[in-house]
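Model the whole thing, not chain by chain.
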Amino acid sequence: MWTSGCQSLTFSIRVYVYSNFSSEKHRWNPVFASTNKSVVDLSLPAKVERLLDGLKWDDKGLVVATAQNVDTGTILMQGFANKEAVLKTASERRATFYSRSRSQLWTKGETSNNFINIHDISLDCDRDSIIYLGKPVGPACHTGTATCFYTSLDDLIDDPQGGKHKLALSTLYSLENIISQRKAELASFQTGKPSWTKRLLLDNKLLCSKIREEADELCRTMEENEGRSRTASEAADVVYHILVSLAVQEVKFEEVLEHLRERFSQSGIEEKKNRAPKVTKD
Amino acid sequence: MWTSGCQSLTFSIRVYVYSNFSSEKHRWNPVFASTNKSVVDLSLPAKVERLLDGLKWDDKGLVVATAQNVDTGTILMQGFANKEAVLKTASERRATFYSRSRSQLWTKGETSNNFINIHDISLDCDRDSIIYLGKPVGPACHTGTATCFYTSLDDLIDDPQGGKHKLALSTLYSLENIISQRKAELASFQTGKPSWTKRLLLDNKLLCSKIREEADELCRTMEENEGRSRTASEAADVVYHILVSLAVQEVKFEEVLEHLRERFSQSGIEEKKNRAPKVTKD
């Protein structure tokens, strides 16, 4: 079913060096058997090809490929991939799709440099859909927005001429956006009593006292066995005040997650590093 | 291009009551012009149909439809939708797809009751892909897992017979999973020095002292102008310790987000509630 020129990428002698990077689980660095180093060798172990043969490619040899931000979970874009595109993505660790309109592979960022660096590739239960879990370098959309999904159908129903630029964000990032908007509004003339968020944004002393207070209250839910619901509610308070403090200092929550990912992916990476380099010849 | 029986859903007299719910922005409650209340009237205002006419339906009258957890951002499943499926999703607020194998609509959960309740529908820049941002009731996958994406290609490459059940989670939820695993490991016999996470899980006093200490350190980054990078790092420390405290009390971070969503979606909802019920006749 898969008809594009993947065979041309397969060489008779395959030698791979298996290495790890702090932010990426796998990368195959092709080592050339010939002296012609200008040849791009995208070949992959036969077992990878066999695995991909097990995917349910549609009648055009494609699966749906959705790129998702590994840290925030934001869906960045959706395209299609043929076997060659998945092989290229798996080997070069940059999200690559098959353009149905141009009938060719395209690596997101090949002209804009806004690549999506791949951390993992996930297959669904039916094997006909994949997620490219990756880290975008710059905006994912050709329009310059972080994600291609920035139009709410509900908003369009309210206002068919407007309704744009509401990014499809999950709760934490929607809240982060709301706080950013409140901060932006502070630059213009304000009437009436400011909202709680604005008061916090304007008063570091108040904000810090609230962060310490809410952290203490979260601890008390444990110390005094106040129950699950109270814990969730108090944790929500702490998270909200952390988001405000990040907004004050122009730090995105995504940057916090980058720190966490780097710290907590260490164990797996260290485990891999302790392995002898994998050199296969088949 | 869209060929299924949507026209049959259109009635000459359309009366809608426009109402709001705490967790959902829109819901059209059809009010029947006839006395036959058993007839399911899925008709929507002409403007909604016109909006959907503007989508780029493929040669089979479909767009890709991806269901995403509104709170965590986890991609739950991916299917396809025809116009009728999007209309039904928009009106009934439950993720509905078009089954290509059975050539019929199917609402996720119609047999299992594991519905995905819709909060928003997002269109991409090309208008050929949509996100159903929703809240799953129970597991989204027919296999019983939270998401259909539980197979890592990288893991399969390492172990073609295994490599399953690594959910496609973004950083925060991967970390939450790691902490849960550490907690589960505590039930079995432990040798050697326990990890820091395990020490925290075993000692509420230590955990609470760390939560208070890290919250204080985050505040100091603001009070002492320690810079953006230090702020992100200290916020990461607080978030990690919050996750451990949630694990101790068997609370998922998703529950924390539910609290935040309920609080911060109030303003928009209240604004809508203050409007007179929208009754249209066309």
